[in-house]
Design brief:
With about 375 residues, the chain is α/β, with parallel strands linked by helices. The chain contains 15 helices and eleven strands.
Length: about 375
Amino acid sequence: MKTDIDLSVLTISATKPKGKPAAMLAEMGIKIVPIEEDEGNVDRYVLSKRLALERRTGNSFLRSIMEKTLFTSAIYLSEHFRIPILIIEGEVNYEYSMFDPQAVRGALSSMMLLYGVNVLSTPNIEETVNLIAMMARQEQIGIRDISLIPKRKATDLADMQRRIIEMLPGCGMVTARDLLQYFGSVKRIVNATEEDFRSVRGIGAKKAAEIYKVLNAEYEAVDTEKHLEDAIEVAPELLFQQPVTLLARQHHIYTEEKERHIVDLVFLDYEADELILVELKREKLTSEHYDQIRRYLDNAHKSRLLRSFLEKGVTIRGILATVEEGKFKPKKADISVCLVDRKQTIEILKRLRNRRLESMDCIVETTGLLRGVDAEERGPQTVCPQV
């Protein structure tokens, strides 16, 4: 599995840590933790508190139907995990086993309909291992946002240009071709005025205004938790009324089992003599988010940074923060919920963006000046604004 993610940050618990799939996962860099309790002959992999899967080859799958162990495993998975998965690897050889195919179909349907177990099929052990690794990566690190816009491979440069312009409001293939023929390039379309657009056949005042707005309006959104972190780092007043000091961002906490947890932000309130761990979310808060920050608080003393304060008597609490309104209420008083103002966050992100752009413009301008001056004649140069 080709990936740009460091798989050494992943941990998978396995009932057969010395088996071939576990060994292959370990070769990828994934940490394999043995499941110590007696699980019989089940080949099970636990990826998180909510997700676990069992692997069965075609022959062992048929045998588990005969011995009823498939169903006892299904009961265990469905009772202990919110996302139970059964992977059937390789072909199911009905003829060799003299097994009735109808019985297999019944077993498979009961997995999903009766026990709520998701059933997946893989052709071989390599594909099984890659699938487990991918699920572990998505479950423990996260899934990148998926675009819902259908994509097809562009046939040539002109086709790619048309597809870009087709995304503008009211622009199908015909209008996109007309715009490109009229202006000659995507760049000229982007730089066009409303009046320029109205000069194109089939584009009235309303459509011209909509196209111009899309191309020129300032981008306003909080797309990721990182953007929320960026804003709160420079403007803690989004969360706090009192003065606080940022101690760390993306701070790692390791449990005794060597599981890694990452705290988004760590603040210190000097006046209250209090550490504050902040977990940021873009979506509505849930009990899973509460459990997440609960683990941070429970393992805070295992962090060298946090322990240095805790040993001095500093107290600690957690904040769950989001830009999405909801009704979730924490179970204990040491964790609170904060609704971050979306508009204020966007304004801060725009301010950061403008500073960055000003700095980039200054670098370009200064570079241009230097190119036009002989090295011996260079005097004091333009100083860029600090970001």
